[in-house]
Amino acid sequence: MAPEREFSSFRDPAGELFWQAGAIYRGINRCYERQFRTALQSGLLEGCVADRLLLPFEVVDAAHSRYVALLKPRQLSFISYPYEWSFDQLKDAAIVTLELHLRALRHGMLLKDASAFNIQMVDGRPCLIDHLSFDLASEHSVWPAYGQFCRHFLAPLALMAYVDLGLGRLLQTHIDGVPLDLAARLLPRRTRLRPGLLMHLHLHARLVHKHGSSGRKVAARPLSPESMAAIASSLLALIEKLSPRRQATEWSSYYSDTNYSAAAFSAKERTVRELVQASAARTVWDIGANDGHFSRVIRDLADEIVSIDVDPRAVNSNYLQCRRNDIRNIVPLLADINNPTPALGFANRERRALCERGRPDLILALALVHHLAISNNLPFAYIAEFLAAQCRSLVIEFVPKSDSQVQRLLLNRRDIFDDYTEEHFREAFSAAFAILERRAIPSSDRSLYLMRSKASEQRSKNR
Asked: How far is residue 224's CA from residue 221's CA, in Å, rounded to a whole number?
């Protein structure tokens, strides 16, 4: 099978990614041979892999290829993007990036790229996936990735810390990082009183604006590796002190405001586990996961769980709980299933849409359908068709109109949802799914369903 180049791999002349026989490889071009050999032979790459800072890889036989070296990295089944991360996910990614740069400087190298898109959440923590991000420190008089780091990490983190947690999504519209002048205008004036933010963001933004409009090449003062390390250490101290803005979000206290009794909630946990186990799923997308409680309930039943919610505080709580308990197979993700992350970049092919990044064995949709049907006016048939196209099996909770959570949604609006009944729910979902099992949740009017996608069955027959 002929190799197929990964479309998004066109920016770095040092090498490229390509697909072959379902696996991704990284080819290293001759212009990067000296840098790669130095990083390899100095022990830099080996040490970073051992400390879970760099994605594991193996050097494979490059004979008969046009590359000077060929790498086969550990294969990742799901890719997330920085605009889908919570505050602490992005903060930890920033810290890993700076730690890599500081470690490279101790090996006579530096990090030439500081793009947040070079980081992935691997085994529950951020990890660099671009093995060609290192360069010889002797080739540079300044840290070439300084501005990129500030745009990709410092600016969005500062905005999430001082203005609004949702502003991390600016990385979706500014895929080369949040412009520093924009961040400086949005931040409150008191941030100028913090020396780190004053130097690395506000004054930095002013200098970029001044020299960017001058039309002249900037003659920067050469920096020693020690000075570069001092800048990185200053950024590290600044980033470590940032904390997410304390703000109330719509669903951050969902589980403390539930209408379940303790007995009903325990029964729901048991039933969810039984239905997930019956599905024999190895990959799960938990949509509307809130703080990831049920993702953690089933964590031992699946190899990978993508735990999706629209609430930035809930997603951050999920990430912190997974980090604290060293849970490695859950990927907390900030996304709105009513408006899924689109494809982005040149030709809309550099960053894939959420729905293009995998088809899980199972979708878990607990306490979700009433939000889609009532808050967003989505017909049951639309919801069923969308979910059936994404998965093989579905565990979904139906919440009737008598439930207090549904009544809460209807509190300040006219009830126009005559079709919002369990009968219509079953009818609409039966068109897209085979209903395998229904379980009533004790001490509750709610029910749980296990379904099998008819589209998935058809895809299996067509293979």
From this structure: 10
Query: What length does the chain have?
Result: 463
Q: Is 79 exposed, middle or buried (0-12, 13-18, 19+ CB in 10 A)?
A: middle
- 337 is a domain residue: yes
Tokens describing residue 381 = 């048939």
Backbone angles phi, psi at 284, to 5 degrees: -135, 135
Domain of residue 20 covers: 4-73
C-alpha to C-alpha distance for 285 and 394, rounded to whole angstroms: 10
pTM > 0.85: yes
Residues 124 and 69 occupy one common structural domain: no
Query: 419 and 282 share a domain?
Result: yes
Note whether 385 and 415 are within 8 A (CB). Answer: no
CA distances from 157 to 67, 91, 197 (A): 38, 7, 11
Helix axis angle, 155-162 relative to 87-106, nearest 10°?
Answer: 140
How many structural domains does the chain have? 3
How confident is the model at residue 221, as a pLDDT?
80
- The one-character DSSP state at 132 is T
CA distance 70 to 84: 31
In a domain, 112, yes or no: yes
Query: Is residue 66 within 8 Å of 345, Cβ to Cβ?
Result: no
**Percentage of the chain modeled with pLDDT above 70:** 93
Q: Which amino acid is at 205?
A: A
Q: 288 and 156, same structural domain?
A: no
H-helix or E-strand spanning residue 307: strand 304-309
Note whether 308 and 335 are within 8 A (CB): yes
CA separation, residue 276 to residues 174, 281, 399, 445 (Å): 39, 7, 19, 21
Place of tokens 């998004």: 8
Q: What percent of the chain has pLDDT over 90?
A: 86
Residue 247 domain-assigned (yes or no): no
Give the other-Cβ count within 10 Å of 245's Cβ.
17
Do residues 153 and 61 both lie within one domain? no
Same domain, yes or no: 22 and 164: no
Establish if 248 belongs to a structural domain.
no
Cα gap 289→314, rounded to integer Å: 9
Contacts of 224 by beta carbon, 8 Å cutoff, 6+ apart: none
Give the span between the Cα atoms of 420 and 402, in whole angstroms.
11
More confident residue, 457 or 322: 322
For 129-155, the pLDDT digits (tens) are 999 999 999 999 999 999 999 999 999
Last residue within a domain, chosen from 47, 73, 99: 73
pLDDT at position 256 is 56
| Residue 210 pLDDT grade (very low, low, confident, very high; cuts 50, 70, 90) | confident
Q: Which residues pair with 27 in a beta bridge?
A: 16, 70
